[in-house]
Amino acid sequence: MPLDPAIESGDRSHTLAPVESVAQISTLLLDTDPTLDPALARTARQAAAEGVVLLRNDGTLPLEGHRVAVFGRVQIDWFAVGYGSGGDVKVPYIWNLLAGLRDAGIQVDGELADRYASWAATHRPTFTATWGQWPHHFPEMPISAGDVAAAALRADTAVVAIGRAAGEARESVLEPGSYYLTADERALLDAVTDAFAHTVVVLDAGNVMDLSWLADYDRRIGAVLYAWQGGMEGARAVAGVLAGELAPSGKLTDTIARRYTDYPSAPNFGHPDANEYVEDVFVGYRYFETFAPERVLFPFGYGLGYTTFAVTVVDQEKDAASLRLTVEVTNTGSRAGKEVVQVYAGGPDGALGKPARALVAFAKTALLQPGERERLELTVRRDHLASYDDGGATGHRSCWVLEPGEYPVFVGTDVRSAAQVAAFHVADLHVVRRLTEVAAPVVPFERLTLGREVDGSAVIAREPVPTATALRRDRITAGLPREITPTGDRGIGLDAVGSGAASLDEFIAQLSDDELALLARGDVTMHSPLGAPGNAGVLGGVSESLRAKGVPPITTTDGPSGLRLSAYASLLPSGTALASTWNTDLVRELAALHGEEMLRKGSDVLLSPGMNIHRDPLCGRNFEYFSEDPVVTGSIAAAVVGGVQSVGVSACPKHFAANNQETNRTRNDSRVSERALREIYLRGFEICIREAKPKTLMTSYNQINGVWAHYHHDLVTTVLRDEWGYEGVVITDWWMEDAVDPDFPALRDNAYRVRAQVDVLMPGGVKTEAGPQSYADDTILESLAADDGLTRGELQRTAGNVLRLALALKPVVAARTLEG
Ligand code: BGC
């Protein structure tokens, strides 16, 4: 959401001040804010470098010892992050590529660099457009073929930098300058590849963009590097990789297909009202590896280094439940590097169509010197190979099942080249877990599944998606919590609960209905006076009376790439860059340092990680999210949450769930089978929640099968809390859509939301005639008093969720208050 008028007007000029040297940065840090931590910047650089994916290299890289001509205005106007709440950080500096290359000791052609610098100085990017209308690219500096040829007399290698950005409320689009190259970029590539024997292309972009043009240049482009958006240190990290000072070891977390229309989501993406997730569980590589391997340009998991590795399974231990693989990775080349070992599994044909391969485990080596080796242990749990039967095709509706047959296990360094090393054999159908139907589609559509030709080859088949049969009203009524008998104020403060002198129930029993209702709403606006200036909102102790009982005000801030506050803060690598490292230890370390910055800046809850699945390459917020794969997504998210929370503050994974496009994001309906939800869109959240136990979680704006996420009892109560054991707070994404509960007409808006255990409306102001900033809202209290309305037990349950967070964060808030 827009935060202040400057951001609303799209003014991002503060993010575009390039730096020239490390020395200048020390000065900038001191000038701007001495609380910025150089260790965080160093780790951010390391992470940005590890996230760079080298897609092609014929030996052109690294650049050390070469004379280099750098083309493309992005060398100056580097895109360090995408747009919106995930990018609006008041950043103290941003390295650009030119400065980074010079810093790395690369001999850059000065004449050309000067020309770009002076042109860029007089052609500043314009950000005058309003929220959601930011530029996808910046127009290129005109340069003649003659001038390019002249540069080729002074330098032996060309680097061409191409930049793209998208963001919140700003999808990538199928146009030149967004998904496609512009005519000017084509002309530049033509001229450069004509004149230079060696050309490197650097893609500075948050989303996957079209790369079909690479074929037109064939070997005339010697190296291609997908840099993603690495934050304030990103360009310097990329320069370090180009120079050979840092080893590339990133791997794609998305498939790069030949054409946009090859993606199975393409016909059903971007519709404003509803999108049918026809591809079902066949998202990304699950589709391509099963049905269309020839449509892949660069496979999922792929990425080169400057050295070579031998990857050998040296030991296997298997029992009925798991397979433990010991994989030895040896650096067989002549430079240092890291490698990622990836384990995939397939499944037998059966009643449920299964993808040919699905990632089940991965691990990354340390930096290995030439000749050095490391053994990695990877475990595959047989139960994790199960499929979810949402229609009863196996005879076991609403169960995770292992159908009989062989489940091959593959090990390798990308999805395509991984080779079979083992298999699980399942003799008879095995029910792994019995659940209940949740969030099933109500509008019928056909989904894709696996068929077989006579010769056994895979072919796309279609089947009707199973539709909802469960009775929501009955489920909710059966699960209503008991009421804690109100006692009135007995003088028990929250501290007494913290020290064990009183129970949480005793504390809650004292709260009036007004106080209970206040705990279910954040402070009225963003930029709450109760928190650090520029915060995204405050919850918990939002009234005098709650604060008097010891409930602290809890400050939330965006977000995934850095703290969005009025103060300066570090701009970190964005989600896709982080995930492309496949290095959970490094991500955790970075997140812990980020947590330390939260402590210094007064943020208690970081509205991060963004972890929706990259269903389609055009989704504007893909830069904030991690991958098309739920295991990568869940593991990286768990690392972020683990790191942030290790210092005592809270992370807040978002957006739960199926928030896969920005177009009409507050109203559109993600129509998706329960199977695809459970296997793909919820799976990452499940991994993150089970592993890292976030204290806070944010719902999404969209509807899931006709129900807004912030009202979704099935998702938030049945799945998140009852099945996964989540005990934290659930907050809305900023504001929500009004609606009446279809099964309980006495509940609407906030009452409808609390029933789902979406505990807190953020921020708390509601849309009334008095305007959007008003706190006047009686929907909770009215519903409490109504027949068949919200029960006090439910409101107390939500208060309990909020108060447990308050108890956990109390020491952090108290320390800040003391300092303040
Ligand atoms: C975004 C969230 C963000 C919130 C607060 C919303 O528009 O979707 O991701 O955390 O605003 O800025």
From TrEMBL:
Residues 339-415 form the Fibronectin type III-like domain. It comes from the Bacteria. SMART domains: Fn3_like (SM01217). Belongs to the glycosyl hydrolase 3 family. InterPro entries: Cellulose_deg_GH3, Fn3-like, GH, Glyco_hydro_3_C, Glyco_hydro_3_C_sf, Glyco_hydro_3_N, Glyco_hydro_3_N_sf, Ig-like_fold. Gene3D superfamilies: Glycoside hydrolase family 3 C-terminal domain, Glycoside hydrolase, family 3, N-terminal domain, Immunoglobulins. GO terms for molecular function: beta-glucosidase activity. This is Beta-glucosidase. Transmembrane segments: none annotated. Its EC number is 3.2.1.21. Keywords: Glycosidase, Hydrolase. SUPFAM superfamilies: (Trans)glycosidases, Beta-D-glucan exohydrolase, C-terminal domain. The lineage of its organism: Bacteria, Bacillati, Actinomycetota, Actinomycetes, Micrococcales. One of its GO terms (biological process) is carbohydrate metabolic process.
